[in-house]
User: Fold these one by one.
Assistant:
Number 1:
Amino acid sequence: MTDPIAAIILAAGMGTRMKSDLHKVLHPIARRPMLLHLLDAFDAAGAAEKVVVVGARRDQVEAAVAPLGVKIAPQDEQLGTAHAALMAKDALVDFSGVAIVCFGDTPFLKAATIARLVERLSGTDAPRIAVLGFRPDDAKAYGRIIADRNGAIDKVVEYKDASDDERAVKLCNSGVTAVRSTDLWPLLKRVGNDNAAGEYYLPDIITLALADGDRAVVVETDADEVIGINSRAELAYAEARWQAARREAAMAEGASLVAPETVWFAYDTQVGRDVLIEPNVFFGPGVSIADRAIIRANSHIEGATVGEGAEVGPYARLRPGAVLGEKSKVGNFVEVKKTVLGKGAKANHLTYLGDAEIGAGANIGAGTITCNYDGFFKYKTVIGEGAFIGSNSALVAPVTIGAGAIVGAGSTVTQNVEADALRLVRPRQESKPGWGKRFREMMSAKKKG
Ligand code: UD1
Ligand code: MG
């Protein structure tokens, strides 16, 4: 039996370097708030409890995590990381197991790393605390860990309080700390604030455990996994790293990316096998692309389902609720919203399809517009199987075009069209032979005087 896990995520700080009205931990990476990436990792690690410690802008954080079964622990004054962690105690009165304390601005912490820390606590050397360490290229002002080759910690020290020799140590403290709940609360209560910052330091629980004669150990991980995000530039760098990894994964799973560095995925994009993605494609949330589909260059796709072998773009925009059937086609400068295209249906050029149902094999001519909105309400357009909509038609919803019907080019259709009928909505054409020539002769005579 493994110990139950509780996450204690500290997010009470202001995150001032972000210069934002939005709380730092809610800034998105791959279209998902960074805090939610971290919560996903704890879910994947099977965490039984998740508590977020909030202070500054707590309403924003609460609103973002409330639907996810996360508990909220307020910290009214930011007195330090140990004080913040202690605020989670009430939310975890009934919890007994391993608590993992970490920071809301390290979204890339992996489930496997959480599992490694928990496992390390059950090591035969019975450590009381396991902390996650890393060796960044630039150790900046991170807290330092002084440990032996086996990871047994001798001392931890905050940068502000460290000697020059200690600052020269490359092993840094990520802040991610695993400790049994039965040990955590008493240790946190003993932490004082007699230090350079006058704060209650979380790493002081390690110092206290060592003073008690207990063991504390460091588990190491890649710097990229735990490096914090404090500014817009660091956010952009984190996004770039996430995207690079996702592109690699898409290719490893059998998709071809012609210019991988120009394709932008969302956290939940699903891409099948033998999918071809051309350059400059942007995926918003909620997209699934089935096997053998082709996404041509410069397309913007969100909330859409693209069926097997379907073709999208170049320059297509699929908005939420676009569902493209097998082998259907959506071509250049076509926008599709809340519309289902049946198998093999085509809208190849310059079209808007909104709130529509389009039958299999239907052909939507260039410049067709579903007029779905009257400024107050939205209405539906239904186009039957095999129907043919002539170019530059306006279909004024609600309207139904029957299966196999043909709408003549340039028609503004306001009434239903029966199956297999022809609908023409345009004035009769008049033709006057020789009129052009006579007009020119008359006008040039007039001009000469
Ligand atoms: C902390 C660690 C340091 C570590 C580094 C890793 C301490 C004392 N130091 O330093 O060893 O190398 O992180 O990034 O823990 N927070 C609260 N309430 C508070 C104070 C902080 O919720 O009262 C939250 C902040 O919102 C932030 C996190 O805790 O998300 C870390 O606080 P921060 O002030 O950034 O700590 P560092 O000085 O970076
Ligand atoms: Mg920090």
Number 2:
Amino acid sequence: MIGMAEMAGRELDGLRELFEQAPAAMALLRGPTHVFELANPAYLALVNYRDVIGKPLQEALPEIVGQRFLALLDEVQRTGKAHVGRATPVVLQQATPGTYAERVLDFVYQPLRHSTGEVSGVFVLATDVTDRVRAEQTLSQQRRLYEAILTNTPDFAYVFDLEHRFVYANEGLLKMWGKSWDEAIGRTCLELGYEPWHAAMHNREIDQVAATRQPIRGEVPFTGTFGRRIYDYVFVPVFNSNGEVEAVAGTTRDVTERKDAEEALRSANRRKDEFLATLAHELRNPLAPIRNAVQLMKHLPSPDPQLRPVREIIERQVRHMVRLVDDLLDVSRITLGQVTLRNEVVSLGSALTDAIEASRPLIEAAEHRFTVRLPSEKMQVVGDSTRLSQVFQNLLNNAAKYTPHGGRLSLHVERTGNDAMVVVRDDGIGIPSELHSRIFELFTRAHPSEEIKTSGLGIGLALAKQLVELHGGEITVRSEGTGMGSEFTVRLPLLETLNTAEATPADAPEHLAMSKRRVLVVDDNRDAAESLAMLLKFYGCSVEVALGGEAALGIVGRFRPDIVLLDIGMPGMDGYATARHIRSTAAGKDTFLVALTGWGQDEDKRRAREAGFDEHLTKPVDPSLLSTLLTVERAAAD
Ligand code: ADP
């Protein structure tokens, strides 16, 4: 049997143990001066193990004077009412005398009473909540900072839960939606009025980010209170402390202006390319009659021997101009994506020989020493031999142009794996290294023309690069700098099947083998028509001229030409319509119809064929091509 006293004793023991072990600070204060009667270890720890027992509070913890605790204790003592304080700061002396620290306490002052009901003391229970309060303060400060950033950024920031609902949306986004926080939060995109396809897309993306744990990016138009804008957005996973995706956060940026600017730039660039193409095309028209006239002068007996060098000047300059205009046209066509290669198996050696022959006059004129090392093995590539030879001719011409008189040039070819490397080197003026990256861009000229007396538009290398790339190759430059010479390397993938039949170069045309051909020239440009007619007459043809489609139709019936050279771009009845009409007449049924245009693109050639043309020539017509055509046609007709 346990007696009452013993039971009470055990309960007291339990209480004492609780008092000793409790993590909360406990103390018992007695009398009007609040003398410490008891203090547990947690309390002693709080006051830095000072010897407080038996001492009035003011004396035990002198730093308390001036803080509100004394007054509070007095009040509890006086009124007999407990006081509960929450997150109350207290400054306490530290182990080193004279140093103080602030702690934050949750505390209770509980009055104890005599049996008479009079207050006999105060029980103090305090919990140190400093760490929790500080952490909360830091968090709320961070939240304020983030909020300040998120509210003021022009971007939208938001968070979705995994059920696709918005759990956060910043000011900017709410404004764009025209919704309040309460209207928006907890809603899905669909509920916020997004179009169904758009809402479904974002739902899918949220699922994807949650499943793959990877961010995704997108761009989408949206019409909100700011009108129709283009938005660029990123969704990223938000992980919980276990590393699981608990939400998907997003940021969205209005990129409308940037997109517009890019589009404006693209369109300006397109217009520039189109302008260049038109310019080159228009420049060709006046060149055609000049070229014809010069060709004719060459064949006519000259009344004055002094005219011969004069004619040669015109001839050379026209040839130069045709080349410039052709380059310009080529480069703008390539940038407009209008060039397709006439792909065949090409012997690299013969493309190089063609280029060397074409550049030889320039190299010889400057008295450069020129060494050539061609491969002994047969190297074949798939491509357009004219275009390839144009590339190498360009490099050789540049080497000759940008090397002072009497320099050294070389061209050599070697094989590296499956590639042919064609290296064109000179010991000329060189190219500063900072220009190497830009030298293949259109209109880049490394040497201002005041410095170097050469002409050029800065097209050649851009064209070369584009052509080489169309062949699946690459062009690079090396130069140690100004005065140190330059080296251009063209890498071209080789055709591996060596037994493929080598492309046979077209036989040179027999010269001026035409007898009395009946040729009708139709062109609205009188100079072009008449100069071509004169040239053809010189070749021995019988020629008539029509300055328009309608006039041509009348002549065909009467003149019955073997060949009609027909300009395409004419006012009124154009070349295509004229061709169709000619084809539909008895006289024109079997006539050989040749289209003459400034463009010569595949599309034009197709249209020409459809309109009934047999051949298609690009203006200004190369005289040798013209004579070939007349010969070939005659052979076919005989
Ligand atoms: P262009 O010769 O018509 O100006 P290119 O595109 O062929 O145009 O060349 C661009 C520029 O590169 C030239 O203006 C010249 O400054 C520089 N360049 C090209 N080839 C050489 C070379 N072999 N040596 C030195 N500079 C060169």
Number 3:
Amino acid sequence: MENTESKFFHGIAASPGIGVGKVFLLEKEELIIVKKSLHKKDLVKEVARFRKALAATRKELQQDKLEMLKVLGKTHARLADVYLLILEDPILTKDIEKQMSKEQVNAEFLIQIAIEKLHRTFDNLTDDYFRERINDIVEVSHKILRHLLGKEKTQQEEITEESIVVAHNLLPSDTINLKTNLVKGFAIDVGGKTSHTALLAQSLEIPAVVGLKDITSRVKTGDFLIIDGNQGTVILDPDPQALKNYKREKEIQIRETQDLIKLRDLPAQTVDGKRIELSANIETAEDVKNVLYYGAEGIGLFRTEYLFMNRESLPSEEEQAEHYSRVAKKMMPYPTLFRTLDIGGDKLKPFIHSYAEESNPFLGLRALRFCLKYPDIFRTQLRALLKASTEGNIRIMFPMVSGLSEFLQGKEILENVKNELIRERVPLSPRIEIGAMIEVPSAAITADLLAKEADFLSIGTNDLIQYTLAVDRINENVASMYDPLHLSILRLIKMICDAAHSHGKWVGMCGEMASDTHFTKLLLGLDLDEFSVVPAFIPKLKSIIRSTSLPESRRIAEEILSLKDSNKALERLKAS
Ligand code: PEP
Ligand code: MG
């Protein structure tokens, strides 16, 4: 019998859907660099050749930026700005020219030496921010080298037929030259459910499996693959029956999506009439069109930190106010829930000179803690949000609240900012709901205290699960332990919902758990009032909500809470 075991790879389901096709292996391109000694008389020519390569790289990056803006939106396009800035760095410009006249060798060789030196200096750093910046410099150097070596086509451009892209990692810049209409799936060595690649694939609506560890060394270009972005599996050389099954499932899913989209204008309401607020998670103003297309009735999580990333200076109050107003206005009359800055200090290091390295940033100065420590940054954001409040129906939520006093401190600053604006005669909306995000176990356990002071609670399961179970949410080695059905998580969700309701407040969920349709009935039964999910998941969720009654969902929740084994709980939910 044929050994089918070796053909299955299990990773992490990162973007839903099924992709079938031939592998296109995106290999790290090896450029062959040779050292060439130059005569003095050839130096001027070599400098001119180098400058020409820099100019060509600049032009390429500018084109990339336009393309990224078109395809991926502003957030991802900012990476091109970072690259353009790197291109002006003396390491890649003046220093190379200086070395050229000193050493009298070719430009390619000197760039290579500069990269090796950078690696030697920074390789041992554990800090993600610096490691990412080094990768960016290497990426830009690579582009200059390609121009010097006269390599015109990138590997991505060689995709001419429908393919499954297999790569070690995938950055927004890697997708620029990718004909995304030909890409039927991604299979990636690294990453977790909330990694950059996962979010990217979701926004491109391409099925993806990540965290496959060594898939790049197990397949080659031309091999036949099935990507199951729902289950997180990849099958190499599927047998005819498996292929037939998957093709059928894919057709069913396409038909289902077409049917589901017809529900767009119907309310998300249970059979017995409980109205659920079904909203969307987004990162930029450009995402709003998708939100409306899929029939969301609001934004339940706007991750404002994206406006602060990959840039050289902090966004001003005006820039922020303009951005927030644009989103709130487009969403009218539906609410837009802005989450204040959720960022670790490391990401803002260029602007904060006193910032000290943290050995464990996930347990460090993040989100609300960071904002309380740097109130000027916080106040600027709050002023901008309040200014946007007359343009739409806005809500504000603080992330990573770990207890009552932190939440009250945040509210106090907000109140001060409000009074300041009133004194400046800036028009404000008279009623803005202020919520606490519940994603730290200490906040979940004291949710009753928070519910008394907040207008609403929103459960961030991505972090709540990682902190409760002590499982890093983006580490593929412990991914199997990241279990939303762990009884501790279910009990916490129940506690949070009960706490909110006992104070007459509504409670939502904006973590990925809300997007998983296996959990919809259970979450309804635990009494969740609002679900906030990736826009494309809205129609499916709506159809489940519209076919479920509260008594049925409560029965399911009760039964699941009585089970001690999360595998059994999942089986039960799959059967419901
Ligand atoms: C969460 O933690 O569940 C959440 C929605 O926030 P983020 O994924 O941005 O940390
Ligand atoms: Mg979170």
Number 4:
Amino acid sequence: MLETAVITGASSGVGKSLAIQLSDAGYKVVLAARSENKLNAIAEEIQTKGGNCLVVPTDVSQPEQINNLKVRTLEYGDVFVVINNAGLGKFCKIEDVTLEDWNRQLDVNLRASFLVSQAFIPGMKQREKGMLVFMNSVAGKKGYPYSAAYVASKFGMRGLADSMREELRENNIKVISIHPGAVDTPFWDETGVNFPREEMLDTSTLAQSIMHAIQSPGNFTVEELVVRRTAGDF
Ligand code: NJP
């Protein structure tokens, strides 16, 4: 029986590349994000190559929609991999951070990672096998200016992952945090940040590194993966 992987934020960027590579590697994939049209286009691409996938339009800032994702996914297959990838960043001076932007980044980047992981842990415990992947950031390891809410959400995500890793070792559940530098995705489109796109990491190569971590055999776990361009931060 094929194993199932759930990917949040699968409609674009890193999540899209990962969904395609997971399908190419033989996983059934569940594609979650808000943009149904984009998810359907990715599903078509996957199915054309003979892959098996399910689209579940989901706004992960809404706990009841995460519950719907859980119900639809559990009808579809046994979840082996959860990729907590949905995320956004809003960059400005600390005094200009609105409560709305603070809440959105914390809700999508951090709270949803907790709720989505929690939804699939019981099945993993039952099967004594599973993997939780957190698409974190270099901003989950170091504070950058003009990014307070984003950095806070990613430090929180790292704490969440570290705690769950210790708790779930005895259940044979691997917890992997990915900390990339800047990646060339639509993430940057409306941030007003003008780093040169062609010098950023590309999604497909980053997804290959993550696949390598996911495919570590037996009792090997890549607990943290820090990936930067060779020249360092912008
Ligand atoms: O960005 P982008 P990335 N509910 O904008 C989804 C981290 N990261 O691939 O809902 C559900 O192409 C959105 O889907 P949609 C970053 O923090 C990036 O770069 O349809 N989904 C889309 O699929 C993030 O955690 C860089 O709009 C929601 C996806 O999230 C992850 O990588 C550097 C949602 C965002 O895709 C993927 O970001 C770094 C919601 N409420 C870490 N809101 C970088 N790009 O440089 C958003 O260190 N999404």
